[in-house]
Amino acid sequence: MAGTFNTVHLIRQVDLFSLKLFLTVVEEGQVGRAAARENIAASAATKRIQDLEEIVGVQLFERNPRGVVPTAAGVVLARHLAQVFGTFEDIRRDISEFSEGVRGTIRVCSTGGIISQYLAGEIAEFARTFPLVDIELREGANPEVVRTISAGEVDVAVFVNTTELSADEVDCAAYRTDRLVAVVCRGHPLAERQHVQLTELLAHNLISIAPATSLMAHVRQAAALAGVEFKPKYTVNSIYAAMGLVRVNQGVTIQPDSMISRQEMEWVSTVPLDEPWAQRHLVLGTRHGRSLTVAARNFVAQLTSRPA
Predict the structure, then answer these.
(1) How many CB atoms lie within 10 A of CB 6?
(2) pLDDT tens digits for 7-55?
(3) Which residues of 9-45 are buried (b: 16+ CB within 10 A; e: fewer)?
(4) Helix (H, G, I), strand (E, B) or coil at 35
(5) Of the candidates 78, 183, 192, 306, which lies 20 to 30 Å from 123 by C-alpha distance?
(6) pTM for this predicted structure
(7) What are 74-109's pLDDT values in tens digits?
(8) What are the angstrom distances between the C-alpha of 197 and each of 87, 202, 219, 230?
(9) Which CATH number fits domain 7-95: 3.40.50.300, 1.25.40.10, 1.10.10.10, 3.90.78.10?
């Protein structure tokens, strides 16, 4: 057995499992029981302990008929290793917030349009980075989204910022800016216009989408201010149904420009909407005064990391 303790040799030659096994032998007082506890063969455990003694250069155990007891050197080594493995537990706990500990559930609420435009892709990206985190996603009209975050029913909400909404209990951060456009079929009389106002769209069978949406609230308000009766020919619940009607020249509709695909542009034309509410500011809301979990903080950081 070597007589000189070599730190470099110890670091290079001894693995953490052997050191953990040594501590287990000290606790159990028998190599056989320690081997069973660590799920290795007794002969393999004996060989690891012998190798460890060879590396440190001293005998670590006294053998007797009932098992083994640590020598004075073994007691010293056990004390230091207990501290080392205690430090490893501290490391595990601290690092867990960035790896395995970033788990749990994030409750998110937003409108269908924002989910389709932005959040679906954001959630997919987040899931790749934090696969152990579950996201509970709720869809609602804009006022309902604000209500859920104000009431603390969700952790994160993304909604259209409008002056009519009261969000006193919500901390808001800029998320995205998009613009509403008129969508008409190819060859429509409005297709070549540089811009168009709502009153002009109302004269061409405006297709309404889900009356509770913030977009339709703006439309109704603008029509009332202009003294024009808002009587949509069709009212549908999805942008896809509205786009289907536009493609066959059954009316016109209003959509965020970012939601219109290249494929759809083969059948329709878009015209900038000349209204003060056409540019929309999307915000990310969290409950005022509530601390977010590590998972939720990472989700918010991702959502706000790109220019609004």
Answers:
(1) 13
(2) 777 778 888 999 999 999 999 999 999 999 998 999 999 999 999 998 8
(3) eeeeebeeebbbbbbbbbebeebebbbeebeeeeeeb
(4) helix
(5) 183
(6) 0.60
(7) 999 999 999 998 888 767 666 665 655 567 889 999
(8) 67, 9, 11, 14
(9) 1.10.10.10
